[in-house]
Amino acid sequence: MTMTGFFQNRDRVFALVLIVLASIFYALIGDMEEPYSPGALAASTYPRLILACIIGLSCMLIIQPVSSEQQTTIIPWKGLAVILLAAGYIFLIERVGFFVLTPVFLLLVPLVVGYRHYVATAASAILVTAGLYAVFVLVLNIPLPAGLLGD
Amino acid sequence: MLDNLALGFSAIAHLPVLAAIFAGVLIGILCGVLPGLSASTAVALMVPFTFGMDPVVAVLLLVSVYMAGEYGGSITAIAIGTPGTPAAAATMLDGYELTKQGKPGLALTTSVVASSIGGMVGVMALFAFSEPLARVALSFGAPEYFSLAVFGLTIIASLSSKNLLKGLLILFLGLLLTTIGLDGFTGEDRFTFGIPKLMDGISIIPALIGLFAMSSVFYGAEDELHRSERVSLSFAMPRLRELLRLWKVYLHSSLLGSVIGVLPGAGATIASFICYNEVRRFSRNKDRFGTGCLEGVAAPEAGNNAVVGGSLVPLLTLGIPGSATAAVLLGALMLHNVQPGPLLFQSNGEIVYAIFAGLLVACVAQLFFGLIGVPLWIKVISAPRPLLLSVIAVVSVVGAYGYNNSIVDVWVMFGFGLLGYTLKKLDFPVTPIILALVLGGILEENLRRALIVSGGDYAIFVTQPISAMLLLMAAISLLSPYMLNRLSRPGPEKKTR
Predict the structure, then answer these.
(1) Can you tell me whether residue B37 is helix, strand or coil?
(2) Closest-approach residue (CA) in chain B for A26
(3) Quick one: which H or E segment has residue B354?
(4) CA of A113 to nearest chain B CA: how many angstroms apart?
(5) Is 0.90 exceeded by the ipTM?
(6) Is the pLDDT of residue A99 over 80?
(7) Which of A47, A99, B177, B188 has the fewest C-beta atoms lying within 10 Å of its C-beta?
(8) How many CB atoms lie within 10 A of CB B55?
(9) Which residues of A touch B179 (CB under 8 A)?
(10) Residues B67, B68, B70, B74: is their CA dihedral positive or negative?
(11) Rg of chain A over CA atoms, in angstroms?
């Protein structure tokens, strides 16, 4: 198999990434305090055992025969856009506040996905924001980030 | 025993509790109807709404969502030929055929009657087996709990039967994540990278919300799911006589489903197909199956709803989840300071008996809402999916934030959402990581406790009879899905002349 062929198989690439990460973590955990009583395991022993299993199983995944249909995975732009929108929403929610940011997010996601019923989207954005505020803040007494609207 | 059931009914005979059960049934059916939202996702999404609730109200809301979610999937399967949940795939075989023949009312009514009977039989099984099993489990020590956790983790075999190696890899990845935080024995920090919020380890509820709900948003956004289904059906209700003649099917499949539910990992989907095949095998009219026969609708529906009660047996008595949804329920119970396990019957007996009684009420509510609400559920199928995705995303963020009023928990939820999405894209199973998150702590703690007791002798796990038996059962559980899969394959077709 060529190197290109190897990297076109997503399982093998994933296994390779896990081997690298597990090796780094194995080195990071280092040697921990000696057990304080006979038979007791050090805090590092159990994670090391798990990391060794991850490395071993990843090696097995690399050498296991694969079907020809397993190729590289492409993340469609819509999926990626929603991931970025969600990350932005989380990043800004404490700064801008739930009440201001949530309707914007609820308007943007359907637009990005390709939904073009603007009235329904706007109505849903307002109703859902108000509904969640009512349930969490007024009924369950769980504070939501106020952001720009103050404490 | 009946006294305990009476105690349960008295615990639920309050307006907030009954309202929670009815709301849970409605929400469960609603989520089950929507393709892409499983019962597990529905329960995970509802957990944040229970944060401030009384434990009894919260737990009954969630178990009602679980029960009705399993039923709701059949409505979509029958109406549009797309299973709302994986467990409804078997129902679709005959249910959708009946719809094509202009008899959706017949199929939908049979489905809700069978589901409700199956649910009740499952609860009876839970009632009958859980207390005796909990009494046995009272004698468990560290070696037994370690072996029990190993047994629970063997569930991955059935959930990863396509590729056990991938399932095991993801399981160990999940176990590694449970080691993050301060070590409970020595106080040393492991993989916290100096982030104080990680000292307590990964918060399980935000992680579960991410793995189930947020990942479904990312996955749904790229799919053709925004296509709305326009459905219009006419409803001719079946005669009572037609429903009653199926009593043998209801009983047979309900009992079979209850037993399958108790087995770790077999789950509702496998139960549906096994019940369908078993009823077909014993039928005198095998050829009618797949062409729109009522037995083909009743069997899988009774089976997959009976699984709910069955899967709560190991959860409540041993603290071991029997399915992915039960794993979410375990996290939710712990959130409300209810620790499932043998001591639960002594420490929180009221909640256990309230669950028994509440599930019986939920079955009746499911029958009621299922019968009168069909036109409404059909409208729900036409709901615009993009709006739903954005709402799920917001509920996930707000739910993770509300867990501890911390943005770190929201990032944990987002991270697990990305992980779940990546695993789905790479065709790796997600459930092993969920089970590992739930059972990882029990596994490590009891491994280390047992070794301290034995002075480092690993033989303690096989010299203690119950522990040895549990390890043997774990080995059998690892192999059982292959045996069950063989059973659930259709038998040889009758030769046509």
Answers:
(1) coil
(2) B191
(3) helix B349-372
(4) 6
(5) no
(6) yes
(7) B188
(8) 18
(9) 46-47, 50
(10) positive
(11) 24
